[in-house]
Amino acid sequence: MEPLLEVKDLDVAYGKIQVLWGVSFKVYKGEVVALVGSNGAGKTTTLKTIMGLIKPVKGAVLFEGRRIDGLPTHSIVKMGVTLVPEGRQLFPELSVYDHLIAGAYLLKDKDVIRERLEFVYDLFPVLKERRSQKAGTLSGGEQQMLAIGRALMSMPKLMMFDEPSLGLAPKLVDAILDTIARLRYEGITILLVEQNVRAALEISDRGYVIENGRIILEGKSSELLESERVKKAYLAI
Ligand SMILES: Nc1ncnc2c1ncn2[C@@H]1O[C@H](COP(=O)(O)OP(=O)(O)OP(=O)(O)O)[C@@H](O)[C@H]1O
Ligand SMILES: [Mg+2]
């Protein structure tokens, strides 16, 4: 089977400083794949490169077998790839509703947009209740739901999450992880980036560990959770 997303031997640099070294991984349709690693390992850089926000020095990104590296971000979104960015990146003065409609900017059909909106409101009823509220006044958890809701409006095939649990209380972390499980059930494939290695490996099928810009381990998430190397470096209490 052909992977939905394939990242092949990616080298990425900021100016003269190289931060990704031969990064390769695959995500198959229907999977939840975790990309885990510490601060500065290169996780966000990897996601930004997939979204077309950074041009790699070397390597390729394929989506449904087609090369997408070098394409503009809006074309990549149109093909069905979306990112829930680190730090949510909402507009404090814009309402919940306006954020969601903005997320559907590539959809033309009003009925489809309405359908998507109902889907998001069904997933997060609190967003419906607070549809007129400014994003800046939402709680942290509600803001995370809005960031996910906005990404869902574009009808993605692949959703990438950049540290969705960051800054959330444990109960909310569980709620967000439950949401990810539900999205998978809805047929959305997921690439989950986390520093919360245990949580990410617990809800994913497979995982990749990135250190200093290199993939150093990969495997079934259940096996990675048992691996001495992962336990020692990431799961020590
Ligand atoms: N715009 C930039 N210009 C220069 N260097 C950058 C830039 N963005 C990131 N870097 C550097 O690239 C490396 C990888 O950063 P990246 O943000 O991809 O890490 P990360 O794994 O997402 O870390 P975190 O878990 O802290 O978010 C770091 O050393 C970082 O300082
Ligand atoms: Mg990051």
Features of this protein?
alpha/beta; Rossmann fold; 2 domains; six-stranded mixed beta sheet; four-stranded antiparallel beta sheet; binds adenosine-5'-triphosphate; binds magnesium ion
Give structural notes.
The protein is of the alpha/beta class. The chain has two domains: 162 residues, P-loop containing nucleotide triphosphate hydrolases (Rossmann fold), CATH 3.40.50.300; 67 residues, no CATH class. Helices cover 39% and strands 26% of the residues. The strands form two sheets. A six-stranded mixed sheet has the order 6-7-8-3-9-10, sandwiched between helices. A four-stranded antiparallel sheet has the order 2-1-4-5, covered by helices on one side. It is globular and about 45 Å long.
The set of bound ligands, ions and cofactors reads: adenosine-5'-triphosphate, magnesium ion
Strand order of the largest sheet: 6-7-8-3-9-10
Stretches with pLDDT under 50, minimum 5 residues: none
Structural class: alpha/beta
Shape call: globular
Please report the first level of CATH classification, the CATH class of the largest domain: Alpha Beta
Question: Strand-and-helix sequence, N→C?
Answer: EEEHEEHEHHHHEHEHEEHH
Number of strands: 10
* N→C terminal distance: 39 Å
- Tell me the number of helical segments per DSSP (H or I, 4 or more residues long): 10
Strand % is 25-35%
Q: Please identify which CATH superfamily of the largest domain we are dealing with.
A: P-loop containing nucleotide triphosphate hydrolases
User: How many domain modules?
Assistant: 2
- Name the helicity range: 25-40%
Could you describe the largest sheet, including whether it forms a barrel? 6 strands, mixed
- The gyration radius over C-alpha positions equals 17 Å
Looking at the structure, the CATH topology of the largest domain is Rossmann fold
